[in-house]
Each structure stands twice: as structure tokens, then as C-alpha cells.
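Sample intake sheet
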Amino acid sequence: FPMSLTSQLVRLIRGKPVAGPDLEQAALMALDAVANILAGASSVPGGVLVAWARDNDIITSGGLNADPGRRVLLLGGLCHILEVDDLHRGSVVHPGCVVVPVLWSGIANGDGRKALVALLHGFEATTRLGASVGAEHYKIWHNTATCGPFGSAMAAASLLGLDDAQATHALGNAGTQAAGLWQFLDTGAMSKHLHAGRGAEAGLVAASMARHGFTGAPDILEGPRGFFAAMCPDGNPARITAEADAPWQVHFTSIKPWPSCRHTHPAIDAAQELRRKLSNDGVAAEGIETIEIRCYKSAQALCDRPNPDSLYAAKFSLQHCVAAALALDEVWFDAFEADMRRDLAPIRDKCTVVIDEAIDRAYPRDWGARITVVMGDGRRIEALRSQAKGDPELPLTREEMKAKALRLMAYGNIPDAETFADAVLEMANGGPVPPLPRAFPTTSATATRH
């Protein structure tokens, strides 16, 4: 068939060289995502997913079912639950939750290096597409859900050894399954986890079917009834293949230090700086008169939630996240529970969220925030962030990445977590893909935490 955007993307990705630092970064991303999976099973939504998986024989007394599609549906959903998985700013996609489950789907045959190359391919596909869809797409569609199947399919195509034509068919059928709407945010429904799981499953199934000769539309992206025509009124398809010689997109993917929507992170980072300043002056957060949160339009659209009435709403509330960062020693899971939502309400009520034109112009290249607090005596204190901790410009160290993973696995009650973490990182040096720990309950009890 004629050269299409999809086939160009396949050739671009497969033509990029892979070096040692690329594999090392891929291993860190794999560790972060798999730790999120193992921790996610201990959450309330994770308990629901685990119960469903058990009732449908995806989890059995012997471990996970051998069906790769069902496995990645479960693993992808669990990965995205705690809101502390990775985020690629330029595409507004969480690539790990749709790509990394494929590495533990059973199709990697234990080859660690091959699995990490597949991760590089998957991250590249989903983020390049996400960077092209445009702001109007993001207002209605969840980019991780719509662009994720392409990443999963590309990773699976690599692991399954598909040729370029088969990989193009796989992406064609991944694209026709692209879906995922933001409507769930209005009620705090669990759909976002389904978005990640289905994104992982759709791409893997599309790739495995392509291996058997099942065809997909090669022009699924640019065709008159394709992805861009249907879902991207201000999309820029040329961005998919732009800067082909740039480093792998895995190097531009942010890691979350805090378990909330990534749009809240610049504000959290700035507010923590203000907390340290106030603490040095002997002033508590309760002494603040007003708090102004200046941000970009997408952050306001998703996260201007002055009165979050659920744990999930609090994770998507700029006001709550800033109040927590100003008042607490750290922002971790407990900061979003019902008692904290109650206790932080007086500080949250002092917050206003407004658009800052300079910050908005820099988005999505930079995700910024400016926090200004006014004290009772009239003093104004301000902190500005163009990036947040965990961004490529302010990365977590390897030691910090491992510590985060161990903390997540402790939350998931994973035995011998450090051995597993080391084995995941050793994949970059030729080690095998380590088997997942037995982390999923097989009794009728479901998780109750978080």
C-alpha cells in the first residue's frame, strides 16, 4: 500500500539507534510503571479491578491468566489508579500505563533488552501522536486513551517481530479503537483506569491479530474518515514525523513525585517552596490571608475544583493540592483522604485560580505555575515554576526513582521489593524480564485502602 503517516511512523521509530543510556532510561520508566501497577492493586478501585479479574479467571490460583490481552487490560488499569505514574508534557500522555504492561504480557519471552527496545518504540509512537492531536482534542478526549493504543501496538509489534507492513496494520486497527472521554471527571467515576487498560489491550490485540494477517487501515490517521478528521479539529499531523533525529521521547517523559494530576505539580512544587519560606519565618499556613494560583488554560479547565468531594476530585484540585503543599510536610496518598479534605478546607477556601498569559503561551512545552500568598500583615510572597520536580529539566535521580518504586511497592505489600526493583533495572544490562511478584489477592477480599 502507499506510504501513509502510520507507515512513516513505523519506519521512523525502527530507524532510530538505541544506545546504553536509552536502555537505562527505559528501565527506570519500566520500574516506575510496574511499581504503580503493584501498588494500584491495594487501592479501592484496584480492589474492584482485582475482584473483576478474579471472577473472570484473569487472576487464578496459579497467578495471572495466560491471555496477553486480558493481562494488560488489568495491568494497565492498575498502573493509572494512584495518579503517580509518568507523564509526557508535549503530548499530555501517560505512556507507561499503556506500554509497560505489554512487557509483562507474556509475549516478551523473558528477553529484557528486547522488552526495553519495545518500550522505547511504544513511548515514541504514543507521544509523537499525542503531540500532534491539538488542544481541542484534549478538551473532550483523554489523550492517554486515544493515543495509547498506538503505543501499545508499536511495543507489541516489536516484541512479536512484525514486519513494517504488519506493524502498519497493527497501528491501523489500534487507531480505529481510539476512545476515552473526560466526562468521568464530573462524578469521579473510575473510567480513567479503564482508559489505560483498554489502551494497552487494544494495541496488543491489534498487533497479535496483524501477526495472523488481520489488516487495518494504513491511512487511519490522515484518511478522510480517520483519526484526525474525526477527533482533531486543530491537529497537526506533521508533528508525528517531525524531528526524526531527536532523542527518544522516553528522555522527555516526566516522573511524578506526587500522587495527583500532573497539571497540579508545578503549583505543588511552588507551594512547597513558599511553605519552607514561611516555616523559616515561623509562620504557619493558617496565617495566610489569600492564595492566588496562576496557571495555563488546560490546568484550569481540568483542575479548578475549589470543593473536591472525593479522593479523586482532590487529586484534580489545584486548590486542594496547593493547600496540602502549604500545610503538610509532604504530599502523598494521605493528603487526599476525607479527613485531610476536611481539615484543609479553610486553607483551600483562600485559593483562587486564574490564567497567566505568559505561562499559558509556554504550554505544553513548559507546564508552569505562579503561587502568590498574601499574609495578614499585607506581605506578599511568591514562587514561580516553569517546570516541576520530576520533569526532564529537574529529574529525579536514579536513587530517587528506586526509592519511589520501593515506597509504592511497600504500599502494595510486595515482598522482597528491592530484589525485584534491581532485576527490572538490570534489564538494561541484558538481564531477563523478571516475573511479577504474586501481588494480586486470590481470595474474595478486596482492597480497602486509598
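Comment: Residues 443-448 have pLDDT under 50 and may be disordered. The chain has 20 helices and eight strands.
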